[in-house]
């Protein structure tokens, strides 16, 4: 079963918290659709900012959006101009009070979404897919991961028939719920069609009790996050290489 299901959803409530945190009641469907639209808009708007995760929290009058990115400078802009502009755009689109927080991903090599997007971007730029994947695996293992697995499918090298290739290094125990497995599924648009890319990264095992509520407390100075502050989950890891 662990080989089939999404590793992130399989660990929700155990070692992983939810990306949407609110109680909707009768408005559950509307709020869910609005969250989907917000994420779609932000991922398209911040395509070059290496966005890893978007966490949305709602109260009665306020929508708080936390953007986890490897390049916070591109999101914040000079003197915070870009993030203020983004905030106004979201207010006009969804007619609600918006608050935006920026959280810096300190080790993008250990984030499956960022690794997958980098591979897709290189493949679209006509870099050989094997070269792009092997470089990603080497960088991830060097950053302290316990294991990584990457699968690419489609008309590889322009072949007539689509096929699938898998690249592995280290261990990725999908059946172990305490294993911190990050997962990404993305696509690369090439001249011969779409290539599907899946990335699994094992960042160690978590034995202590985990606080599943979002914890992105970072002191900001001049619009930029403080790099010395770690996320709440990072302090509880057995694997300290992250």
TrEMBL record:
Superkingdom classification of source: Bacteria
GO cellular component terms listed in the entry, alphabetical order: cytosolic small ribosomal subunit
KH type-2 domain ranges (all copies): 38-106
Subunit structure: Part of the 30S ribosomal subunit. Forms a tight complex with proteins S10 and S14.
Region Disordered, residue ranges: 214-242
Bias (Basic residues) ranges: 233-242
Xref: InterPro entries: KH_dom, KH_dom-like_a/b, KH_dom_type_2, KH_sf_prok-type, Ribosomal_S3_C_sf, Ribosomal_uS3, Ribosomal_uS3_bac-typ, Ribosomal_uS3_C
Gene: rpsC
Entries under Pfam families matching the protein: KH_2, Ribosomal_S3_C
Similarity field: Belongs to the universal ribosomal protein uS3 family.
Protein name stated in the entry: Small ribosomal subunit protein uS3
Skewed-composition ranges (Low complexity): 223-232
Keyword RNA-binding set for record: yes
Function: Binds the lower part of the 30S subunit head. Binds mRNA in the 70S ribosome, positioning it for translation.
GO molecular function, one term: rRNA binding
HAMAP family assigned to the protein according to its UniProt record, in alphabetical order: Ribosomal_uS3_B
An example Gene Ontology biological process: translation
Keywords, alphabetical: Ribonucleoprotein, Ribosomal protein, RNA-binding, rRNA-binding
